[in-house]
Amino acid sequence: MRVAILASGNGTNFEALTKQFQAGEIPGIEALMFCNHPNAPVIKRAERLSVPYETFSVKECGGKDAYEKRLLKVLQDYQIDFIVLSGYLRVVGPTILNEYPNSIINLHPALLPKYPGLNSIERAFDDYKKGKIKETGVTVHFIDAHLDHGPIIAQQAVPIYPDDTVDTLEARVHETEHKLFPATLRKVLSQRMEKEEN
Hints:
By secondary structure, this protein is α/β, with parallel strands linked by helices. It has a single domain (2-197), classed as Rossmann fold (3-Layer(aba) Sandwich), CATH 3.40.50. Helix content is 43%, strand content 21%. The protein is built from 7 helices and 7 strands; from the N terminus they run βαβαβααβαβαββα. A 7-stranded mixed sheet has the order 3-2-1-4-5-6-7. Strand 2 (29-35), helix 2 and strand 3 form a beta-alpha-beta unit.
């Protein structure tokens, strides 16, 4: 099973996943990292970890449709079977969704369906300060055509403490992501590979 990780930013979750792929703790082959921001720090991480990568932006392609078609061609060229969205800040369009049904998972820093979209941790923290919630969390889910939507595979709550700041909460959310995401991916890929063997 050949896996691509799509990322847009810093790449801490990409690095956590890559180290587990390279240690043989996650089954399959991490064949590609794709980034839609050519200057993002995740590219340096891919270089340092010796992961093949490709990068181009929507703007370079002249629009969303051309971008998706070019990305699909890259995925096909690398013979990708499964896609992991790890801080990929774009909605995946029908060109790729249709080619990879039930084969794209996303990590989101909130307990979906709460706080979809950007700034989830900040929005949860604001609601905590207003007395609306006591915890936030992390979700791993298969994606569909809607933003941060689709069948949930795993969730883990992260409590919010009275002395928390957005930064301390964000650090704990990321710590939880770095544990939940690899464990969930390991399970999903193992089940997928088992099914294909039978």
